[in-house]
């Protein structure tokens, strides 16, 4: 596991970093994560809040997450990129949304959760055409 996590939003106005190894790496398929990300599942890197920092202007929105507990999601105030979350039931952690990592290849899912809520938007189906670039 990596000992450093760095990332940014789409426009580059917000950058974050976390030192230390991840506590977990997972894909969450709860409906809250689906709606927040606009995808079938949200790849998440869990880090210690004490090792996490960011620079730039973020906006936040708090809602009851898939766990049934409040969670705050933070996004860039300029481009709207979803960047990280802070679950209220575990204030000692921050959840980094792996799609915003500078080196997304660092992400290695260890497990998936709320798989009962996973559905066809998950396009990694072996029976559909796969294109390494733009589809013809």
Number of E-type strands: 10
N→C terminal distance:
37 Å
Helix content: under 10%
Most strands sheet: 7 strands, mixed
Number of domains: 1
CATH topology, which one?
A: Metal Binding Protein, Guanine Nucleotide Exchange Factor, Chain A
Placed side by side, the strands forming the largest sheet appear as 6-7-8-9-4-3-10
Mind telling me the C-alpha Rg? 15 Å
The helix count comes to 1
Highest-level CATH class: Mainly Beta
Percent of residues in beta strands:
35-45%
Commentary on this structure:
The protein has 136 residues and is mostly beta strands. It has a single domain, classed as Metal Binding Protein, Guanine Nucleotide Exchange Factor, Chain A (Beta Complex), CATH 2.170.150.70. The chain has one helix at 31-37; strands at residues 4-8, 15-19, 24-28, 42-48, 52-55, 58-64, 70-76, 82-87, 93-97, 111-113. A 7-stranded mixed β-sheet has the order 6-7-8-9-4-3-10. Strands 1-2-5 form a 3-stranded antiparallel β-sheet, with no helix packed on it. The model has no long low-confidence stretch (mean pLDDT 88).
Secondary structure blueprint with pairings:
Blueprint: E1 4-8, E2 15-19, E3 24-28, H1 31-37, E4 42-48, E5 52-55, E6 58-64, E7 70-76, E8 82-87, E9 93-97, E10 111-113
């Amino acid at each position: 596991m990596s000992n450093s996590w760095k990332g940014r939003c789409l426009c580059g106005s917000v950058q974050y970093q976390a030192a230390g190894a991840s506590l977990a790496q997972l894909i969450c398929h709860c409906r809250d994560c689906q709606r927040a990300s606009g995808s079938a599942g949200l790849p998440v890197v869990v880090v210690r809040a004490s090792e996490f920092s960011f620079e730039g202007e973020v906006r936040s929105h708090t809602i009851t997450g898939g766990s049934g507990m409040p969670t705050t999601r933070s996004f860039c105030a300029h481009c709207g990129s979803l960047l990280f979350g802070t679950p209220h039931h575990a204030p000692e952690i921050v959840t980094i949304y792996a799609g915003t990592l500078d080196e997304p290849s660092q992400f290695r899912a260890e497990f998936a959760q709320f798989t009962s809520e996973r559905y066809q938007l998950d396009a990694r189906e072996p029976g559909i055409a796969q294109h390494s670039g733009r589809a013809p």
